[in-house]
């Protein structure tokens, strides 16, 4: 090691293993080698390609984990974090939440557009231009060339929020646009914000950074349109959870989330993110084959109206049907189901049921404020005649308001019909198929023959909503156009396939300006030389794959290994349908 002049060689992800040297040393229990690598400066935070785990998360020996903890105490690196406390457990978390809400209560006064513009300008100038770019440079080992472009797009959203006086809408668009922004934002929230408001601790982090983080959250919480998107009810979060993370979930324990939590109103979508049915492909210890990670589904019961918002209509990925839980919410763990104990092949290994803890002080304050706004005048009335007169006025006012509300609702219904329903019918008559923000996974009325292969729906690969569609002029088609997409790995797992297909759709819609992904179907190789068929535009809609033939042919893209017998068999079974 002393002979190696470039530390990046140590931190390089090896093509043969998909891991760094530190990953390998930790996974196979080589303590001495792990210590040498850590002392030499090997990064803790790099995640391996196949399992998305850090070296710390791949450790099964406690003495190796101690090496990480000892080094964390003696040396901290702002960008090299291997283990983050995404949540906090304890008995007095409602008090902690209340203290945080009281501390940020001052931001309620920021209803002035000029002041909000100044806050967002600071977010753009410091958080985007200085801090995020510095994060990118510090992570040069796995530098993504698109990060600068993503930061520019996020900046454009924040500028539009200033121009259109609509922070909530454009923050959600920025948050859901890329993986980079929301991951860094949530990491920073988890690491810094609560400690900033903790008077028992000495705060040493960057004040400007924490100030920006507080602005980003509080401007959302106190936005005047927040109530329009409030959500109460059940939502689901799917994730691959490590042994270290699972240990903090104990029955009847209280837990507070330090960052935003992305959940879905649709259980099936959450199960997909959890890795449903893929437990056998997850990471196990090398010798005794104990699981290092599990497929996990969390079910949240949201009770209060200031806890979560339904961002489906605002998100750049509406098909995820996302419910966004605000940071610093307290839940109680009411049930833990370890399905893997009864069935090793259970589609979901662990299920955790959480119920929001209601803050009685907050409820009472809300009720008091409502009573004061409507009835404070009653308490000031000392004269009986004036009191009776006031009650009559309220009765008359209510009788006027009720029919006005009914008339308003009828007008809104007529506006909706003439704005959305009638134009859609006219466009359908012209051969167009206009969608709402949620595209449905149907086969367009095409009757499949017996023995046809399984075709994965668009929701499987998290497809964006298409803009418009036109029906094929010839059905069934007599011509097939195939394209092999190059520059891809010959063998890919399902996550690789989904990412490549999603990236292809984003490129064709964002850069080329198409209405959807160009192909009707995509065939992608999975591990063990298996093939999966993914629905693009489907059977009956015109693609964008071959000029002059789009209206009379189906376009099929081949990703990964297309030379094998199974690849050809999958292709043949598809076109025979």
From TrEMBL:
Residues 453-577 form the Peptidoglycan recognition protein family domain. It is an enzyme of class 2 (transferase). SUPFAM superfamilies: ADP-ribosylation (SSF56399), Ankyrin repeat (SSF48403), N-acetylmuramoyl-L-alanine amidase-like (SSF55846). GO terms for biological process: peptidoglycan catabolic process. It catalyses: L-arginyl-[protein] + NAD(+) = N(omega)-(ADP-D-ribosyl)-L-arginyl-[protein] + nicotinamide + H(+). GO terms for molecular function: N-acetylmuramoyl-L-alanine amidase activity; NAD+-protein-arginine ADP-ribosyltransferase activity; nucleotidyltransferase activity; zinc ion binding. ANK repeats lie at residues 17-49. CDD domains: PGRP. Keywords: ANK repeat, Glycosyltransferase, Membrane, NAD, NADP, Nucleotidyltransferase, Transferase, Transmembrane, Transmembrane helix. The chain crosses the membrane at residues 400-422. The keyword Transferase applies. Its EC number is 2.4.2.31. Pfam families: Ank, ART. Belongs to the N-acetylmuramoyl-L-alanine amidase 2 family. This is NAD(P)(+)--arginine ADP-ribosyltransferase. It comes from Adineta steineri.
